[in-house]
Design goal:
Radius of gyration: 16 Å
Oligomer: single chain
CATH class: Alpha Beta
Distance between the termini: 21 Å
Number of domains: 1
Shape: globular
CATH architecture: 3-Layer(aba) Sandwich
Structural class: alpha/beta
């Protein structure tokens, strides 16, 4: 668990809730696209990549076919990169397949202002011309600053602007859950 997050805050959603939501997202992706033959998943690092892997496994069990998954780092595409005091950590973009004429499902953990998704769209467009780009998020907390809307949503949350929605995943945090934490100045 991240040392900045209090241990005493109860989970809004649990590991079982997350598993059910990801199965539902996988099912909706397959249904909306009438199968998965031309669908690829791109997870935004550092939690969207893990969620993309999990969604792909559910899709593979539904469709009986391998789903290609790539991992997208959007650090250098962020519109706040020059205004941040801390140095951004650049991760590796890892996409070992052609996205041309594919239905790309972009996966992230929390959708808030839309700026991360805007950066991800710019990165994807630099990689090639897709047939379509769809957005799957585990949590939509509202508060958009850009006109971005998800196609697939696990949970819709009512978080205030000063609160932080935190998705905990066992691969990173050693535990699973979704919490709403008080932010700075709360």
């Amino acid at each position: 668990m991240n040392s900045k997050e209090p241990r005493g805050v109860p989970d809004l959603y649990t590991k079982a809730d997350i598993k059910r939501a990801l199965l539902r997202l996988a099912t909706e992706i397959v249904e909306k696209n009438r199968g998965a033959s031309d669908v690829v998943l791109l997870g935004i690092r550092t939690r969207g990549d893990i969620l993309a892997d999990r969604i792909a496994r559910h899709m593979e069990s539904l469709e009986g076919t391998k789903i290609e998954v790539g991992y997208l780092d959007i650090t250098l595409y962020r519109d706040d990169i020059g205004t941040r005091l801390d140095q951004p950590v650049v991760h590796k973009t890892d996409i070992m397949f052609d996205i041309a004429d594919k239905i790309v499902v972009l996966v992230d953990d929390v959708l808030y202002t839309g700026r991360t998704i805007r950066a991800a769209l710019a990165a994807i467009l630099d990689l090639g011309r897709t047939r379509k780009i769809q957005l799957a998020v585990l949590c939509d907390r509202g508060g958009r600053e850009l006109p971005i809307r998800p196609d697939y949503v696990g949970f819709e949350l009512a978080a205030r602007a000063h609160e932080k929605v935190t998705v905990l995943l066992k691969e990173i945090d050693g535990e699973e859950g979704i919490k709403i934490l008080p932010g700075e100045g709360a």
